[in-house]
# Entry
Amino acid sequence: MSAPSATTPPLSILMYHQVGHYPRPSAHKASFCHIKRFRQQLAYLKLAGFHVISMAEAYQGLFHGAPLRPRSAVLTFDDGYQDFHDPACPAWQEYGFPATVFLISGLIGQPARWQTDFTTIAPLMDAPTIRNLQDEGVSFGSHAVNHYRLSELETADVRREVFDSKAALQDLLGREVPDFCYPYGRYDQRARDFVEEAGYQTGLTCIRGAANTADNAFELPRKAISYGDNVLGFAWKLHMKHARKDAA
# Structure
């Protein structure tokens, strides 16, 4: 699959994690967004005339020639935290925007136990909550079986994380799971190839930049939204921060 056309307008895939009533964190600022600022960001998307589209629409626009309008954006949420259900979900639903949440298939309804150095370990959504949200129009993708750095695993374990999570989530949701998100943004050629082999349409990374700077559908850049992003900073990321910046 070829890279997006050079004439494709910049597409911002926005990356969120926890959204809620959080005090200013001393660390992991990219893991939090205060609900007040989240609402301001959603209002800005509408006011500035952005077209918030689904991952399926983004995929078709980037790689299959479907029309992709200027000022297009995608909302993605990593890990499947309980706070996506409340308070984040009511906020974006007010605007009728689509959203994709990436779930860790082996930790449904459990604590986010990889958060060993966080002040509080956050709960993840359980199966009934996820199914209810799907009925309300939320799309779900895979964030692997566990929350491991795929590039650090043995090859057989990388394959299991990619393939088994797809099977488990499709069983949970009763529908195809077309999108994969690499935990921590850490992946290598093995993981990227397994994502393609497993039948996913896309693989999302933590590479910074507009999605149309991708070389292929399995290494899509995103724009991380951090706790410190006020409306001005949010607007700057949307309008100006398009250049690709690979993770260190």
Summary: The domain at 11-239 is CATH 3.20.20.370 (TIM Barrel). The first strand starts at residue 11 and ends at 16. The CA atoms of residues 19 and 38 lie 7 Å apart. The two ends are 26 Å apart (CA to CA).
